[in-house]
Amino acid sequence: MASNILSIAQSALTAAQVGIGTTGHNIANAATPGYNRQVVVQNAALAQNFGFGFIGQGTEVSTVKRIYNEYLGSQVQNAQTAKSGLDSYYAQIRQINNLLADPDAGLSPALQDFFSAVQGVATDPSSVPSRQAALSSAESLAARFQSLSGQLTELERGVNTQIASSVTLINAYADQIASLNDAIGKAQRSTGQPPNDLLDQRDQLVLELNKEIKTTVVKQGDGAYNVFVGNGQPLVVGTSTSKLVTLASPTDPQKVVVGYKASNGSTMAIGDSSLVGGTLGGLMQFRSESLEPAKNALGRVAIGLAATFNAQHQAGFDLSGTAGGAFFNVGAPVVTAHSGNNGTATITATVANAGALTTSDYSLSFDGANYTLTRLADGNTTTFATFPQTIDGVQIDLTGAPPVGGDSFLIRPTVQGASAFSVAITNPSDIAAADAPGAVGNNVNALALAALQTANTLGNGTATYLGAYGQMVNEIGNKTRELEVTSAAAGTLLEQTTATLQSESGVNLDEEATNLLRYQQAYQAAAKVMQIAKEMFDMLVSIGG
Amino acid sequence: MRISTQQIFDGGAARMGDVQTALAKLQQQIASGRRMLSPSDDPVAAARALEIAQSQSINAQYADNRTQVKNALGLVDGSLSGVTDLLQEIRSAVVSADNPTFTDSTRAALATELTARFQSMLNLANATDGSGNYLFAGFQSDTRPFVETATGANYQGDAGQQLVQVDTSRQMAMSNSGQSVFQGGGQDIFQTLKDLIGLLQTPVATPAAQTALTSGLATGLTSIDLALTNISTVRASVGTRMQEIQSLDNAGSSRDIQYSAALSDIQDLDYTKALTQLSLQQTALEAAQQSFVKTANLSLFNYI
Prior knowledge:
- The complex is a heterodimer of chains A (545) and B (304).
- Chain A is an alpha+beta fold and 545 residues long.
- Chain A is 51% helix and 18% strand.
- A five-stranded antiparallel β-sheet of chain A has the order 13-20-15-16-17, with no helix packed on it. In chain A, strands 5-6-7-8 form a four-stranded antiparallel β-sheet, with helices on one face.
- Chain A starts with a helix and ends with a helix.
- The mean pLDDT of chain A is 92.
- Chain B contains seven helices and four strands; from the N terminus they run αααββββαααα.
- In chain B, the strands form two sheets. Chain B has a two-stranded antiparallel ribbon. In chain B, strands 3-4 form a two-stranded antiparallel sheet.
- The radius of gyration of chain B is 39 Å and the shape is rod-shaped.
- Chain B starts with a helix and ends in a 7-residue tail after the last helix.
- The mean pLDDT of chain B is 91.
């Protein structure tokens, strides 16, 4: 019997030690990201029948388990990926918002100065200084267009770089998740017990991965995580991974897109719209919904200004009586053939009516018989079979052999409008202020040029130059504001789901302190049992002696 | 509900962070005096502010244009006042010439005087502004408008009138064609003067010649009176335009004040409100800090 009491005390001591150890582990990791509290699961040892009844055999620790609710965990992951996506979009668009914030640095002061100087020419058409002032302020306006467009291009390059680093992170997380799948599987198979800290690490990695991109996690029977991204491309399957890669866009070599490298080695581009959530999704959304439209909007103002101003200028005569030439140079529409095209057709696009231009890009595809032009901003399509066609102010034509069915082209009418905007004339006397040759005081055309400032020339006669620019400022401002609000809301949601998860899984130090006291007392009591067992044994020995 | 220790710390940090962000924004607004720090603060107002600023700048441009017109019209009026004075003097001379006691040599002396007046008149008609542009040449502002001929003067300019945008929908002529001023209204000042000079230089020996002189002088007087009427008409139109400029100036400056007020309404900060908000946020931050320290200090470990 005495040895039985000793072993009961022994089991109690062990259980108390495991309890103190686990409590200590919880205290140590109270601030570790992704750590879930662990509890000792203890049960009474199988009792022994002595004929007169069952006598307990002490206690045993059946397992140490982590308190983790997978459902709440996936809610946190979803909230996190939404929040990271909005944050990344917001961080980017804020830069455009700040760019437009300074009233003295935007397009509008340069535009006003330019037209003031044109008024100056109208008031004193024969004065070379007033003509020189008009040329100089035209140069400033061109520089402002170029600098704004340059800053947007900088942002584009920044987005390319960030896409690449996000893809690198995603691949690294995928590798780590795969190796954790392996380690967890081995640990579980060899001990039959859950390797809690490895499980925590893997869940934390999935959360980190969701900061970069939205994932779908499917838990396998053996406990391994299979992770899918985009349109269901498997990133991690058991212990093996597939890679995301960065590629040059098939329709725009300057633009980095994300591709999926399948296990057979083939690479295919994933559509930008399929990559949602997380930093990567936010970047994609920013690029297609705000950055490219902003660049196009600026280009549209530049092209509209140049086209209408040039037309009026060419109707006039300069100081030497020569008919006016183009006042501004402007960037032409850009057409790129898809790199996978089978035909060699070249599609050209020219601005036929600047007043009808939109800020959208267009995709032109050929099915073997008909061409379909899709306005990418709203998906509006036009189908036709012959060239040339003029749609939204852009004349589209075909040179060379017709394309092969399945070929496609990207048409960007206004993308280079602002970056290539420059002043075409250098000699002040070339400004065509007169409406008839041979009279230096004739200012009729200069008056007409000055009047363009307040004329509704753009957007099919609905907007002035400044109005069209104002629309862009308004759109960026609105989107930034919307993101401020939705990002804050997503933050609150993340906070709440995290709080719910934490309220189950997080370490509470007061609770651990209580447990510490509980296990300390259990240990002391077990030690007392052992002491009594020893005293009983000593007593027996002394009787025998 | 169970709460984890980390939540207490994270929550505390987040609350204080939120208040600090709000404080930083208020501080920026107060330092810059602007309610709208970027378009996202009020996207509609941001676009509106651009338009108002453009309207204000155009309004200021019109004010500059009006100053130019005012100066040009001042010069024109000055010249025309000279022309009026000159015509009055010529008129007195012509009236005095119809005097039977005058001899051929007296009339010749008068003719010499009129020749000098002719040159003065030509100078006035060829007047230039500060930059050397001719005032009465129409669009041909670099061409000397009147060139003397044997029978008067030829107009080298054209009929163009330089218009200037002086208000949103008002273009005002700041020049007059010399032809309409000096050779309009059924007369030609230069031809009249040349005729009179020729008449006074002709000797009067017979009663018929005397009659011709008298009737010639009478024709000359009629022409001079027509010229005076024509100049007065032109001066009246110049005066009306200067008056209109004055009233447009008044309207323009009151518009400028309205634009400034509208811009200020959109962009500027209400300091009272902002400062009240600032002390409110300060109190909130202090409260968050104090309550956090108190909560975070509560630990069972303090007692075991």
